[in-house]
């Protein structure tokens, strides 16, 4: 009888928070690149998740995403983050054109009791890779953004969270009668991230 050796990777709360916040940083970069919010030449290629990913070299955006990731890690570790939304708006009118929605389910037992979970890094990477591929191919199903755009990030947290002074309360920046595309999800066994993009579609609204 042959024997089979398998290993499981132990996932801690801190490790899971780091995976999710890092994922969001790369996802945000990929969305900003693929949706043409910043010029192509302001990005450099890096290898991540077994894919060619693009990272902005714009110092303002870099610093924004770095600070954002640090804050997300903190909220994820305390189990207080419910969702993150990256919003793309018209620069001229501030009209919301796209909402990239990352909703987060947290295993409360891990937060409260400090237990860990098991899941292989490879499996998590495969799930993240599937989402990244969908973001990269978004150009095939989303309407062209034909005007200069800007982006913003909304965080939905539990009510008892102390909000850092660098964050301000915001309206949800919703789109009226949006089209929606559900993307893949990934699960570290501590945080599950469900991804969806909703977008304004004039052709649809005119029918």
From TrEMBL:
Keywords: Cell cycle, Cell division, Mitosis, Nucleus. One of its GO terms (biological process) is cell division. It is found in: Nucleus. Coiled coil: none annotated. Its main location: nucleus. Residues 14-197 form the HORMA domain. It comes from the Eukaryota. Gene3D superfamilies: HORMA domain. InterPro entries: HORMA_dom (IPR003511), HORMA_dom_sf (IPR036570), Mad2-like (IPR045091). GO terms for cellular component: cytoplasm; kinetochore; nucleoplasm. Required for the execution of the mitotic checkpoint which monitors the process of kinetochore-spindle attachment and delays the onset of anaphase when this process is not complete. It inhibits the activity of the anaphase promoting complex by sequestering CDC20 until all chromosomes are aligned at the metaphase plate. PANTHER family: MITOTIC SPINDLE ASSEMBLY CHECKPOINT PROTEIN MAD2 (PTHR11842), MITOTIC SPINDLE ASSEMBLY CHECKPOINT PROTEIN MAD2A (PTHR11842:SF11). Belongs to the MAD2 family. This is Mitotic spindle checkpoint protein MAD2.
């Amino acid at each position: 009888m042959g024997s089979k050796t398998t290993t499981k990777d132990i996932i801690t709360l801190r490790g899971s928070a780091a995976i999710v916040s890092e994922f969001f940083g790369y996802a945000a970069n990929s969305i900003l690149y693929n949706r043409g919010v910043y010029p192509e030449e302001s990005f450099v290629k890096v290898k991540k998740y077994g894919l060619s990913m693009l990272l902005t070299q714009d110092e303002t955006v870099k610093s924004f995403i770095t600070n954002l990731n640090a804050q997300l890690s903190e909220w994820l570790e305390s189990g207080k983050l419910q969702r993150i939304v990256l919003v793309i708006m018209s620069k001229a009118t501030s009209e919301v054109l796209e909402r990239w929605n990352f909703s987060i389910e947290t295993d409360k037992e891990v937060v409260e009791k400090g237990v860990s979970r098991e899941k292989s890094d490879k499996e998590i990477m495969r799930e993240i890779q599937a989402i990244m591929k969908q973001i990269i191919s978004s150009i095939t199903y989303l309407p062209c953004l034909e005007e200069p755009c800007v982006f913003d990030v909304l965080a939905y947290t539990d009510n008892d969270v102390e909000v850092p002074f660098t964050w301000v309360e915001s309206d949800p920046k919703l789109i009226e009668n949006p089209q929606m595309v559900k993307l893949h999800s990934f699960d570290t066994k501590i945080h599950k991230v469900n991804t969806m993009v909703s977008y304004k579609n004039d052709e649809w609204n005119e029918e």
